[in-house]
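Progress note, sequence design subtask.
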């Protein structure tokens, strides 16, 4: 089998091709996908045996997500296109999400077989949550005042991201810190929170009333043309266990509601019980389970 790169006609051949082409065109125009990140496995004809594309969080970033995946009729084809394409990219890690209704498992799906045979490992399960106006705005305890992150500057934001990672229950953050990549984790988080689509004044730090010198945490509401989400939220270690996550989540949700969005998405690892409980208190309901697979470069 031949690995073909950048041939969008071949990549978009077969079932779902028209939908793929529309989504890829938008992503390529936005700099989040490049044609050379679109791989198809072919026997030399114009039919694809398997295919996968890769997606970056913003223009100029490395690809981090194995996006459109067609594992093919046989898991071996899907495994081959994943294994060969991931190593071709020259990146440290990529991930792929299988989204399923609550109560379902991915174990018998073609994608699971292709991913595991292709060198990906299922490392974490996540909850996808949604807030809608009919759920009612979460109660704001009113203990915090807020200041836009843009007023603090990039250095203060980076330092905040370093601090909030300490003791985190998030799988990605813990994995990076345990591997000694705290600074890289903070840099990637900085790229995320400054490019995810939030209005500059929406990314806010929360302060105790009358204390403008020491924030307790921050929240990053974000909106794109077709979705809105709580892109990042965190409380600094010394202020955890006091319920300030409820204040920050109420602030972020209310900010997006005031902007007129129909629903707000959020996500957290199933192992992060305190965060899941905070979302439940704020009126977020679980809509899907996400099974997240990782490919990591050797060494």
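Output:
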């Amino acid at each position: 089998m031949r690995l073909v790169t950048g041939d969008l006609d071949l990549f978009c051949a077969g079932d779902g091709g028209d939908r793929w082409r529309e989504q890829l065109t938008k992503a390529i125009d936005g700099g989040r996908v490049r044609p050379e990140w679109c791989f198809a496995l072919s026997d030399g004809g114009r039919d694809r045996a398997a295919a996968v594309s890769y997606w970056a969080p913003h223009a100029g970033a490395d690809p981090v997500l194995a996006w459109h995946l067609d594992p093919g009729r046989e898991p071996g084809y899907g495994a081959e296109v994943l294994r060969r394409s991931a190593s071709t990219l020259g990146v440290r890690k990529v991930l792929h999400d299988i989204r399923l209704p609550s109560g379902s498992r991915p174990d018998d799906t073609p994608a699971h077989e292709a991913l595991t045979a292709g060198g990906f490992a299922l490392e974490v399960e996540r909850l996808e949550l949604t807030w809608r106006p009919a759920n009612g705005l979460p109660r704001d305890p009113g203990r915090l005042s807020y200041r836009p992150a843009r007023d603090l500057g990039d250095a203060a934001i980076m330092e905040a991201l370093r601090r909030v990672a300490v003791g985190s229950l998030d799988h990605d953050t813990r994995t990076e810190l345990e591997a000694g990549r705290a600074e890289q984790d903070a840099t990637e988080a900085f790229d995320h929170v400054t490019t995810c689509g939030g209005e500059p004044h929406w990314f806010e730090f929360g302060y105790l009333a009358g204390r403008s010198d020491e924030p307790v945490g921050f929240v990053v509401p974000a909106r794109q043309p077709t979705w809105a989400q709580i892109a990042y939220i965190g409380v600094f270690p010394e202020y955890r266990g006091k319920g300030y996550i409820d204040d920050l989540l109420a602030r972020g949700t209310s900010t997006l509601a005031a902007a007129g969005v129909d629903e707000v998405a959020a996500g957290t690892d199933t192992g992060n019980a305190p965060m899941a409980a905070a979302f439940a208190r704020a009126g977020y309901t679980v809509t899907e389970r996400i099974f997240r697979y990782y490919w990591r470069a050797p060494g």
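The longest helix spans residues 75-89. Work on this subtask will continue into the next period as scheduled.
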